[in-house]
Amino acid sequence: MMKKLVVACMILLPLTLIGKGNSPELWYKQPARNWTEALPVGNGRLGAMVFGDVHRENIQLNEESLWAGVPMNNNNPEAAAHLDEIRQAIFDKQFGKALEMSNKYMVGTPPRIRSYQPLGNLFLDFGKRGEPTQYRRSLHLADGLSLTAYTVDQNSFRQEVFVSAPQDLLSLQISAGKPFDLDLVLSRGFDPATESKGNAKKAMPTDPPCENHYGHDTGSCWFTGQVIDPASPLQGPAGKHMRYAAMARILVCDGQAQPYDGENGAGFHLRGVKGFTLILTGATDYQAEKMELDATADPLQICRGILEKASVLPVKKLKENHIRDHGALFNRVELSLGGEPDLETMATDERLARMKEGKTDNGLLSLYFQYGRYLLMNSSRAPGKLPANLQGIWNDLYQAPWNADFHTNINLQMNYWPAEVCNLSETVDPLSAFMGRVAIKGAVTARETYHARGWTMHHLTDPFGSTGVMDGVWGITPLDGPWMTFPLFDHYAYTMDETYLREVAYPLIKGAVLFALDYLVLSPEGYLVTNPSHSPENSFYVPNTNKKESSQLCYAPTVDIHILNALFNNFTQAAGVLKLDAELAAKVKEAQRKLPPLKVTPIGTLQEWMENYEEVDPGHRHISHLLGLYPLHLITPKEPVYFEAAKKTLAR
Questions:
Q1: Who has the most CB within 10 Å: 330, 353, 513, 623?
Q2: How far is the C-alpha of 288 from the C-alpha of 306, rounded, in Å?
Q3: pTM summary value
Q4: Contact (Cβ atoms closer than 8 angstroms) between residue 627 and residue 541
Q5: Which pLDDT belongs to residue 128?
């Protein structure tokens, strides 16, 4: 799958550092009609989606570590014992037998993980009022501010939302020309009808997958709760698992603010106010360093500590700290492609509709580029400790699409393709730390599944570091661990930080190399190859079956050849810089000479498998066999045969 956090244009365009011009901004003339139209703010750990509704505003909340599930070793205990037999079946082109055995002996036990979940919602109920005029909803990318301004019943309103990294909280400020009344509700509800949208093929839970308790004291309101995982043989043990909390506090209010709590929420009744500022944060009992739950943690006390520390600062200082910190990252790069200044007077959705009609808007392309940078930096940075998941950090569903997990057969890597070239090196820090922790689990997988040294992982993981084969045989992608070392080597290549290379990247690269050397086997053609493996999520028709049989399982798909060449190149370069492991580097070079060459099909495209199989889905969305073209730069105009074959593959 090719779900993109950031747009492809970011990874292809050269950047020009130029003087600061107009601040990039997304803006609209109407509130968000659904979650995908809301505007995201975040600080790497906390995220929010702001709808801008003038009647019942919804600020949907996320905390990066709030997941269902628990740590578990899902490595199939029968894998290593049957690995040679599965390999031989694939070499013998007995793909049906290989499929049957792989499903039984290699797919994880259990084979699936559970989902990333929302933290909750902050609702703002304004009661009965008229329709707004002069409405404007906007997201200021350079400042990280979501603004909503409008006039209703002859009263002008301005709402401002941001998520501060320095203070690790969300700030909401509303001001008006005249006094108004408002009910604020902090809650964590579950709506089966909402969960079912877009998940028609899935059996969705009908009972709340959590229990919540609401409370308040003078100036504050909160909820605490615990994830309740239902019984699911495919996903692991049932029970009460992760604990969480969210807390909000009124910092400033020029009217009455009465806290309350009830069965379905906690909040404040605001009466006769012209303005107020609220701060909010959330926490769980997840312990990132050990990738497990901490029974001694108190999420509510964590929230309280964060808010108490921030409460001593003036409101103005909170905003100043946020803008300074956010801008220090965002304002490093400005991209200008030219364009028509008059188009900036059009709302963003209107400009997009105009482009869909075939009209040109280079300014919108620049904005799109900057929006991608904004999303990455706000879903992968301190104070966060997890990398950007399939949806960055933003999710409104208890059963998210693809669990909003960390997909490592291209998606997690793709999230970070823009990190260095877009001058956001700090966004790689959570990924580096995460991979260091995953590798500990991955060493168990390498040993138990493949009798191999080093470490690896397969096509997805979660915050608990699951590394076994997931979902089905399409999860048998044993080089996803080596592939995940590439963003770390790129971080060194851009920063030339030898301390980072020595202490962080190199141990992971070396571990991936040790796994690869042990995993490679001699093919009938005399090459060192990966087996079993597959070209991510693609399949081919088994020859001589009249297209009645297809297979994903294979040996030495082209994507693996690219990964191995890049891994071995990175290792030998890093070992040379650090003056380490000369003997191992020599073995790597020897193995690299025995890898299969790339091949070109009779129609001139780059071949995806060792043999010229017919694809079930020509032009499959992954196009994994072009990984060597981009981003690995192993296929260049210096090798015109392969370069032209890559062109024809894209054109097809």
A1: 513
A2: 18
A3: 0.95
A4: no
A5: 93
Surface-to-core class of residue 438, CB atoms within 10 Å of its CB (0-12 exposed, 13-18 middle, 19+ buried): buried
The parts of the chain modelled with pLDDT lower than 50 are 1-21, 200-201
d(CA 1, CA 563): 18
For residue 465, the Cα-to-chain-centroid distance in whole angstroms is: 15
d(CA 40, CA 62): 11
Cα 310 to Cα 133: distance, rounded to the nearest angstrom: 35
| 104-131 pLDDT per residue, tens | 999 999 999 999 999 999 999 999 999 9
Residue 18 token pair: 């130029």
Whole-angstrom distance, CA of residue 310 vs CA of residue 318: 8
Give the 3-state secondary structure of residue 652: coil
The confidence score (pLDDT) of residue 622 equals 84
Tokens of 137: 């909803």
- Looking at residue 421, what is its pLDDT? 97
Longest dimension (CA), the chain: 82
Distance CA 429, CA 44 (A): 11
Q: What is the pLDDT of residues 464-497, one digit of tens each?
A: 999 999 999 999 999 999 999 999 999 999 999 9
In 3D space, the residue among 564, 437, 425, 565 whose CA is nearest the CA of residue 496 turns out to be: 425
Q: Phi and psi for 20 in degrees, rounded to 5? A: -70, 130
Q: How far apart are CA 301 and CA 157, in angstroms?
A: 34
Is residue 474 within 8 A of residue 409, CB to CB? The reply is no
How far apart CA 47 and CA 392 sit, in angstroms, is: 9
| Amino acid at residue number 483 | W
Could you tell me if 140 and 23 are in contact, meaning their C-beta atoms sit under 8 angstroms apart? yes
